[in-house]
Design a protein that fits this description.
By secondary structure, the chain is α+β, with helices and mostly antiparallel strands. The chain is about 20% helix and about 10% strand.
Length: about 110
Protein backbone atom coordinates (compact mmCIF):
# COMPACT_ATOMS: atom_id res chain seq x y z
CA UNK A 1 0.00 0.00 0.00
CA UNK A 2 0.96 3.59 -0.37
CA UNK A 3 2.67 5.51 2.45
CA UNK A 4 0.49 8.55 1.97
CA UNK A 5 -2.48 6.93 3.74
CA UNK A 6 -0.65 5.90 6.91
CA UNK A 7 1.21 8.45 9.04
CA UNK A 8 4.64 7.14 10.05
CA UNK A 9 5.94 10.31 11.62
CA UNK A 10 7.76 13.24 10.08
CA UNK A 11 9.60 12.45 6.88
CA UNK A 12 12.92 14.24 7.07
CA UNK A 13 13.83 16.01 3.84
CA UNK A 14 17.49 16.22 4.89
CA UNK A 15 18.08 12.46 4.73
CA UNK A 16 19.66 12.71 1.26
CA UNK A 17 22.42 14.94 2.61
CA UNK A 18 23.38 12.59 5.44
CA UNK A 19 24.61 9.78 3.19
CA UNK A 20 28.19 8.68 3.67
CA UNK A 21 30.76 7.78 1.08
CA UNK A 22 31.36 11.23 -0.35
CA UNK A 23 34.84 12.71 -0.42
CA UNK A 24 34.57 15.19 2.41
CA UNK A 25 37.99 16.78 1.95
CA UNK A 26 38.08 17.38 -1.79
CA UNK A 27 40.68 20.14 -1.53
CA UNK A 28 43.53 17.86 -0.41
CA UNK A 29 46.23 18.64 -2.95
CA UNK A 30 48.83 15.90 -2.87
CA UNK A 31 52.36 17.23 -2.74
CA UNK A 32 51.43 20.45 -0.94
CA UNK A 33 52.98 21.62 2.31
CA UNK A 34 49.93 20.47 4.28
CA UNK A 35 49.64 17.08 2.52
CA UNK A 36 53.19 15.97 1.55
CA UNK A 37 53.86 12.88 -0.52
CA UNK A 38 55.12 9.75 1.27
CA UNK A 39 57.83 8.17 -0.89
CA UNK A 40 60.06 5.15 -0.27
CA UNK A 41 63.36 4.54 -2.08
CA UNK A 42 66.04 1.86 -1.77
CA UNK A 43 69.27 3.90 -1.62
CA UNK A 44 70.67 7.25 -0.52
CA UNK A 45 71.63 8.19 -4.09
CA UNK A 46 68.07 7.58 -5.25
CA UNK A 47 66.78 9.65 -2.31
CA UNK A 48 68.87 12.62 -3.48
CA UNK A 49 67.52 12.22 -7.04
CA UNK A 50 63.92 12.15 -5.82
CA UNK A 51 64.47 15.18 -3.57
CA UNK A 52 65.91 17.05 -6.57
CA UNK A 53 62.80 16.15 -8.62
CA UNK A 54 60.55 17.35 -5.79
CA UNK A 55 62.43 20.65 -5.55
CA UNK A 56 62.33 21.15 -9.34
CA UNK A 57 58.57 20.52 -9.45
CA UNK A 58 58.00 22.66 -6.30
CA UNK A 59 56.37 19.76 -4.46
CA UNK A 60 56.72 18.62 -0.86
CA UNK A 61 57.37 15.06 0.18
CA UNK A 62 58.84 12.83 2.85
CA UNK A 63 61.40 10.49 1.31
CA UNK A 64 62.46 7.51 3.39
CA UNK A 65 65.12 4.90 2.61
CA UNK A 66 64.34 1.18 2.91
CA UNK A 67 67.54 -0.88 2.65
CA UNK A 68 66.06 -4.30 3.45
CA UNK A 69 66.50 -7.18 1.00
CA UNK A 70 63.65 -7.30 -1.52
CA UNK A 71 62.49 -3.76 -0.72
CA UNK A 72 60.69 -1.94 -3.51
CA UNK A 73 60.44 1.73 -4.39
CA UNK A 74 57.15 3.45 -3.86
CA UNK A 75 57.17 6.65 -5.91
CA UNK A 76 53.96 6.17 -7.90
CA UNK A 77 52.33 9.29 -6.44
CA UNK A 78 55.27 11.42 -7.61
CA UNK A 79 55.27 9.98 -11.13
CA UNK A 80 51.53 10.67 -11.46
CA UNK A 81 51.99 14.31 -10.43
CA UNK A 82 54.98 14.77 -12.74
CA UNK A 83 53.19 13.14 -15.70
CA UNK A 84 50.20 15.50 -15.58
CA UNK A 85 50.02 17.49 -18.76
CA UNK A 86 49.27 21.18 -18.92
CA UNK A 87 46.09 22.59 -20.37
CA UNK A 88 46.04 22.33 -24.14
CA UNK A 89 45.38 25.68 -25.78
CA UNK A 90 44.10 25.54 -29.34
CA UNK A 91 44.33 28.47 -31.70
CA UNK A 92 41.06 30.00 -32.73
CA UNK A 93 39.71 28.75 -36.06
CA UNK A 94 39.38 31.66 -38.51
CA UNK A 95 35.94 32.98 -39.34
CA UNK A 96 34.31 31.92 -42.61
CA UNK A 97 35.23 35.01 -44.60
CA UNK A 98 38.79 35.44 -43.33
CA UNK A 99 41.76 34.25 -45.43
CA UNK A 100 42.67 30.59 -44.95
CA UNK A 101 45.53 29.71 -42.64
CA UNK A 102 47.10 27.34 -45.19
CA UNK A 103 48.23 30.34 -47.27
CA UNK A 104 46.25 29.63 -50.43
CA UNK A 105 44.77 33.14 -50.52
CA UNK A 106 41.19 31.83 -50.64
CA UNK A 107 38.55 32.41 -48.02
CA UNK A 108 38.49 29.82 -45.24
CA UNK A 109 34.99 28.67 -46.19
CA UNK A 110 36.09 27.91 -49.78
CA UNK A 111 39.43 26.25 -48.90
CA UNK A 112 39.79 24.29 -45.66
CA UNK A 113 36.42 25.05 -44.00
Amino acid sequence: MSDKFFFKGRQDARVNHVQSGYQTKANQKAGSKKFPLSLVVTSEERKQEIEAQLAEAKLYGQVSVDTRDGAEESIAALTVLLAKSDTVKVEKVPARNEPCVCGSGKKYKKCCG
